[in-house]
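Narrative summary of target 7.
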Amino acid sequence: MDKFQKKINFYFKANQQIICTVSQIDSFSGIWDLTTQKEHPKWRELRHQTMIRSAGSSCRIEGAQMSNQEIAELMEYRQDMDLRTQDQQDVAGYLDVLQEISAHHTSWELSRRTILELHLRLLRHSPRDARHRGTFSSQNTRELRPAETEMAELITWTNHQLQAREIHPLIVIGLFAYELLSIHPFTDGCGRLSRLLTTLLLLRNQYFFVEYVPFEELLEKNRDKYFDVLRDAQKHRNTESERIESFILFFLNCLKTLTVKLQQGTSAKSNRSGYLNERQKRIRDYIRREQPVKLSDLARGFPEESVNTLKKDLQFLRSEQILSCTGKNRGAVYSMEPTAGVTSSVATHL
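Modeled conformation, tokenized:
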């Protein structure tokens, strides 16, 4: 048994908890792509807001002080901004990498080159980090081995396991995050990079829901526990007493919390459909197929119904947040509102 596999040879009780949690995450992830219209403007907006909150939380874990509102302004105007403060430089770098991962995760394989390139991009706005960005630390790790050597072993093992599927990918990704934090292969930026690489690996393994709720925000809210479970495992690092169950369970429970929040948001919206009468359900289905539509389009589609009846149904569907409307009077255009209750509920309460 190799040294990494020994670390995930969990005790029986922890193993059962891990199996149960992984099953719940996979159950949600399996239906997520089937039910989500991810290119709808509301979903794109939710991804945008998640990036802002993710960047803010991840950088605040490391001591930054910028608010999400300040980060939203930086995200919109950073091409024209003079990034004077360290916080601005760190957040801008995080946003750069997060956007790159979101757009091109299929192109970024886990490799030495990828890790160094993403580290370079993460710190590229920071003059103080110019000398060491994009290069592994020259210092030895706790085992008195070069960080680059330990990272090479970790990358090889992770890629093999993710391809072989002998160990569940969520456990492999959790162990990768733990090992990178423990090896600490860079002078600065290891924590932020570990969270970005975690997102990259999750997306590459089809856990796409992580783009819609900020994983990093959960870590920030549970910052003390995050560091406690990490330190608890590290104090016996690379000995027979090293146990990382608590870290893996913490990681998995954070992912499960994301699925619960998303599920609650989507359920709140879909449950409203149960109060529709048969005509309203047909109108809803028609708009889903033909969107966007105007009242005149609906009148042609339902010639047996009066215009006043259709107007009342549209008003009701809007009040139930099933439809969205742009424009007024004759120019009003209606479309489905797939994230009604999701954007506000998830973004506000997670």
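Residues 270-274, 338-350 have pLDDT under 50 and may be disordered.
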